[in-house]
Amino acid sequence: EMIRWQWRDEATALTISFDKRDSLGKLLKLPFWLPKGALQLVVRGSEGLKAGQLIYPNF
Predict the structure, then answer these.
(1) pTM, to two decimals
(2) Helices and strands in the chain, H and E counts
(3) How far is 17 from 51, CA to CA, in rounded Å?
(4) Among 17, 13, 29, 4, residue whose Cα is nearest residue 56
(5) 50 — pLDDT class (breaks 50, 70, 90)
(6) Strand (E) positions, the chain?
(7) Are 33 and 47 in contact (CB under 8 A)?
(8) What is the enclosing helix (H) or strand (E) of 27?
């Protein structure tokens, strides 16, 4: 709410994404009515990924 209020005259939309399996997902209790997005990422490399391994974008 604080971010929405401070940016009310600067932006028309606010988007946040996180992996609900991560610690941030345990902290945020989002209302059921918010839209939920899904993203699948295909990675190819010399080493395989573990099924439970979290992948973060590098911004």
Answers:
(1) 0.34
(2) 2, 0
(3) 20
(4) 17
(5) confident
(6) none
(7) no
(8) helix 23-27
Compute, in degrees rounded to 10, the torsion defined by CA atoms 54, 24, 59, 17: 90
For residue 34, CA distances in Å to 2, 26, 37, 38 come to 18, 17, 10, 13
25, 19 in Cβ contact below 8 A?
yes
Compute the C-alpha angle 51/57/34, nearest 5°. 85
* DSSP character at residue 12: S
pLDDT band at 30 (very low <50, low <70, confident <90, very high): confident
| Gap between the Cα atoms of 44 and 51, Å rounded | 14
DSSP code for 41: -
Q: What are phi and psi of 36, to 5 degrees?
A: -115, 125
Domain residue limits, the chain: 1-50
